[in-house]
């Protein structure tokens, strides 16, 4: 429900900046969702490590364990020592830190770091005590436990995401502080992903109440209020300082002082939208935290590896899927006489034009009939999209729903014209791609990409361009693997496919 109102109040005197001890916190933390969630993670980690030890005991001979002379010690180490060691090292590596739970890859990186630490500790203990341990047993237990822990945490995270999307539980209620445009920009960014668990409930503007008069906003807008009092009034647990408000001399520091011991979190949202974490580094100089933004990585070993993976996967994919491709080709010929493939000029890397390979899903006169359907176009961009398009034959509709019509694009990937992951390939006859849109030509278009896993045809043109540019600016091999994984579930759900 949009709001067209604001509240105004005299600014209270500034905080005296006297810090309060974290051990004598005057208020309990408002957000407590992480406590039961952390307990669940501890239980899952414990079960994972015990199960890994049980598998090792069952499948590997105890005579290779190094404890062949004492069966009690063997079981004590396997079912008590190893699980407790895992929990201690996981805790020491910050895998239960609430800041990394529920979103991002940092939690999983810390689990892997704990795995490396555990192997190193066991090796040093074995060397220091001159205990002969089976390398096979150690490797089996450690790797198996790592896989189970990662799977358990991933499953718990999916449950948390569902809870956040459907019920709002496990989320942080935020008050955005800054100018109205900056606060609304942050509001749009954090609400794009309900799984992130960030729910803005109010905006406190710093540029005066007149800036919000007559403007509809998604949440109530306040001006000249005591921020901490406002947080308690709206039941929030987080303050997000947006844009230029974070650069006011001394203000951010005094706000941090004021929040000490209150149980309210403070986050800063600088004016760096759509730039991923790996490109941003904090470099403190004489107490001044400078945010250094690295250039996008569009060359080097990682880019070469991406190209190599594309060609290898495309080659073996075409070989493995050849029977499926043959069956689809027969189905198309039986549905409508004409060519099996549809080839259209598209714009690729650095503006080079190529012909994309796709299975034909429309009747042969589809292009001639397009002019009469222009007014029914559901897309606001360069691509013509229409739900229940009458030009699509029945079998073609099934191919589109399952994305099987795009499998021949593996030929384009093998030829180096496309990639497995990248921006969507756009038609070559729909404009010169000037301005921001042209930047997406810095990389090869992909069979899948952020646009596909984020809504596909349901997205607006501006949103599709934003996602494509985000991919170009923040590409990485890990990011590609994540998109490929998400593509599987999107295709199975048939979300936005028409």
Tell me the number of structural domains. Answer: 3
Number of helices: 14
- Give me the secondary-structure category: alpha/beta
Distance between the termini: 31 Å
Rounded to the nearest angstrom, the radius of gyration is 28 Å
Specify the helix fraction band. Answer: 40-55%
Low-confidence segments:
8-17, 21-26, 62-68
Order of strands, widest sheet: 1-4-3-2-5-6
Strand content: 5-15%
Transmembrane segments: 37-60, 72-91, 111-129, 135-156, 312-334
Main location: membrane
Membrane topology: Multi-pass membrane protein
Keywords: Membrane, Transferase, Transmembrane, Transmembrane helix
Protein model, in words:
With 498 residues, the protein is of the alpha/beta class. The chain folds into three domains: 6-11 and 171-273, Rossmann fold, CATH 3.40.50; 34-166, no CATH class; 301-493, no CATH class. It has helices at 34-59, 71-92, 106-129, 135-166, 180-191, 227-234, 251-259, 301-335, 366-370, 394-402, 409-414, 450-453, 461-474, 477-493; strands at 6-8, 172-178, 198-205, 221-223, 238-242, 265-269, 280-285, 288-293, 341-347, 353-359, 419-421, 426-427, 446-448. It has a six-stranded parallel sheet with strand order 1-4-3-2-5-6, sandwiched between helices. Helix 2 crosses helix 3. The protein is globular, with a radius of gyration of 28 Å. The two termini are 31 Å apart.
């Amino acid at each position: 429900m949009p709001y067209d109102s604001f509240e105004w109040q005299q600014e209270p005197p500034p905080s005296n900046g006297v810090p309060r001890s974290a051990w004598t916190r005057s208020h309990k933390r408002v957000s407590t969702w992480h406590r039961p969630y952390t307990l669940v993670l501890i239980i899952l980690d414990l079960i994972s490590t015990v199960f890994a030890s049980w598998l090792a005991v069952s499948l590997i001979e105890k005579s290779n364990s190094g404890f062949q002379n004492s069966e009690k010690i063997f079981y004590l180490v396997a079912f008590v020592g190893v699980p407790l060691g895992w929990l201690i090292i996981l805790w020491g590596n910050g895998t239960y830190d609430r800041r990394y739970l529920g979103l991002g890859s940092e939690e999983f990186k810390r689990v892997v770091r704990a795995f490396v630490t555990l192997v190193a500790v066991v090796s040093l203990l074995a060397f220091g005590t001159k205990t002969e341990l089976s390398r096979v047993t150690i490797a089996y237990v450690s790797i198996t436990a790592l896989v189970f822990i990662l799977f358990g945490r991933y499953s718990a995270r999916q449950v948390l995401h569902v809870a956040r999307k459907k019920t709002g539980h496990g989320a942080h209620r935020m008050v955005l502080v800054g100018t109205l445009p900056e606060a609304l920009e942050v509001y749009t960014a954090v609400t794009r992903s309900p799984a992130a668990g960030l729910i803005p409930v109010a905006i406190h503007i710093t540029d005066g109440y007149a800036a919000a008069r007559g403007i509809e906003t998604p949440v109530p807008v306040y001006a000249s209020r005591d921020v901490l009092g406002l947080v308690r009034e709206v039941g929030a647990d987080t303050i997000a300082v947006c844009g230029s408000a974070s650069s006011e001399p001394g203000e951010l520091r005094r706000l941090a002082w004021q929040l000490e011991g209150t149980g309210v979190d403070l986050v800063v949202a600088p004016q760096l939208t759509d730039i991923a974490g790996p490109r941003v580094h904090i470099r403190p100089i004489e107490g001044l935290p400078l945010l250094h933004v690295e250039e996008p990585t569009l060359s080097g070993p990682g880019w070469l590896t991406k190209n190599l993976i594309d060609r290898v996967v495309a080659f073996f994919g075409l070989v493995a899927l050849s029977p499926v491709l043959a069956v689809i080709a027969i189905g198309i010929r039986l549905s409508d006489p004409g060519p099996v493939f549809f080839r259209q000029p598209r714009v690729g890397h650095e503006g080079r034009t190529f012909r994309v390979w796709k299975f034909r899903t429309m009747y042969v006169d589809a292009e001639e009939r397009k002019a009469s359907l222009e007014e029914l176009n559901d897309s606001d961009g360069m691509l013509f999209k229409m739900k229940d398009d009458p030009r699509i034959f029945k079998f073609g509709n099934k191919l589109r729903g399952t994305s099987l019509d795009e499998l021949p694009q593996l030929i384009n990937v093998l030829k180096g014209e496309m990639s497995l992951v990248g921006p969507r390939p756009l038609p070559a006859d729909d404009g010169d791609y000037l301005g921001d849109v042209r930047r997406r030509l810095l990389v090869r278009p992909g069979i899948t990409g952020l646009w596909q896993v984020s809504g596909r045809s349901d997205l607006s043109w501006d949103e599709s361009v934003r996602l494509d540019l985000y991919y170009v600016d923040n590409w990485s091999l890990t990011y590609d693997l994540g998109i490929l994984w998400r593509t599987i579930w999107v295709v199975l759900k048939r979300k936005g496919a028409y």
